[in-house]
Amino acid sequence: KLPCTRENDPIQGPDGRMHGNTCSMCEAFFQAEEEKKKKEAESRNKRQSENTTSFEELCSEYRKSRKNGQLLCTRENDPIKGPDGKIHGNTCSMCEVFL
């Protein structure tokens, strides 16, 4: 929570809503960002806890895309808990370890 004054200096935020002043607009923005991060983390945790799929099933599509025995993975940040119990940066990097 930001220590905002009650100064009345209305400003329209990037969300299209009117805020009492710049500080209260920033406070609303930070709160929305925090809620968004919380929801994303909950979604990621739910996906990981529901993941009982084997490496073979998860990695079948990547098996075809190997070049010279290696996978060419992006650096996409989409953490996933693999069947090995470890957290991997994304599905491709997890499959790279397996394949």
Automatic annotation (TrEMBL):
Keyword Disulfide bond: yes
Residue ranges of domain Kazal-like in the record: 59-96
Principal place of residence: secreted
Coiled-coil positions: none
Keywords: Disulfide bond, Protease inhibitor, Secreted, Serine protease inhibitor
Protein name, entry field: Serine protease inhibitor Kazal-type 5-like
Subcellular location: Secreted
SUPFAM superfamilies, alphabetized: Kazal-type serine protease inhibitors
GO terms assigned for molecular function: serine-type endopeptidase inhibitor activity
Gene3D superfamilies: 3.30.60.30
GO annotations of cellular component type: extracellular region
Annotated InterPro entries: Kazal-type_SerProtInhib, Kazal_dom, Kazal_dom_sf
Domain of life: Eukaryota
Species of origin: Pteropus vampyrus (Large flying fox)
